[in-house]
Amino acid sequence: MKSYIIIIYILLGIMPLYAQQNKKVDLTNRLTIGSTVPDLPVMDILNFPSSTIDLDDYKDKVLILDFWDTFCSTCIELMPHVKEVQKTIGDKAQIITVTWQSKEVIDQFFKGNKYLKEHQAYLPTIIADYLLKSYFPHQGVPHTVFIYKGKVKAITYFDYIKPEYIDKLIAEDKLDIPVKDDFNTKGVIPDQQNLNLKGKVLITGYQDGLEFKGGLPIEKDSVTGMFVTSMINTGILDAFMRLHAFIEPPTYLWIPARIEWHVKDQNIYKYKSNTTGPRIWDTKNAICYQRFSQDSVSKKEMAKLVMQDLVSFLGVSVTIEKKEKDVVVIRKTTKSRAGAIKPESKSQVEGADNLAFLLDQTEKYPPAFDESGFTEIIDIPDFSSLEKLNQQLLYYGLEASIAPRIIDVVVVREQNKK
Question: What is 26-172's CATH topology?
Answer without folding.
Answer: Glutaredoxin (3.40.30)
